Amino acid sequence: MESEEVAGRVYLIAQPSVKRNGKTPDLSPLAEHGDVVVLIEAGVYPSHNPDRAFNLISTRMNNFDYTRDMIAWAGGDTLSSIMTGIALADLDVPWFWFLRYERKRDKDTGQRMSEGYYKPVKILMTDITMPDDQTDLGLDDIDEEENFNQ
């Protein structure tokens, strides 16, 4: 696979906080794919201070190499994932590797377990298209003023 030719970095979008059960997710499998770079640390809330968060993400992704580096998501403020996509678009990357978490299954029951591994998935940025005619999106029936005043 292309991603394994040269070790790169894993850009963890947001460092997850402690869950309600008192546990933090095990992120050690990420290190199998490269050195981990955290874009948003625990305690930084992009939806509370979006300018600061986007500046952190953009600055930390400055050396992102789409041919070697990967993006991973393990929870956190959802806005940080949107901001990471914007930063990728600003870098004009044609594609990137996303590490999708795959849970293992119990061999006897088939039930998903909490243990798992990260699987690289190639995401093409160049194949994202929008229709020319907005009626394809169902927007022709929306009354913007009416929705705004609700």
- Share in helix: 10-25%
Please tell me what the overall shape is.
Answer: globular
The average pLDDT score comes to 82
N- to C-terminal separation?
51 Å
* Radius of gyration over all CA atoms, rounded: 19 Å
Number of structural domains: 1
Classify the beta-strand content into a percent band.
25-35%
Content-based structural category:
alpha/beta
Structure in words:
Helix 1 (50-60) packs across helix 2 (78-90). It is built from three helices and five strands; from the N terminus they run ββαβαββα. The model is unreliable at 144-150 (pLDDT under 50). The termini are far apart. It has a five-stranded mixed β-sheet. With 150 residues, it is α/β, with parallel strands linked by helices. The chain has helices at residues 50-60, 78-90, 144-148; strands spanning 8-14, 34-40, 70-72, 95-105, 112-124. The chain has one domain.
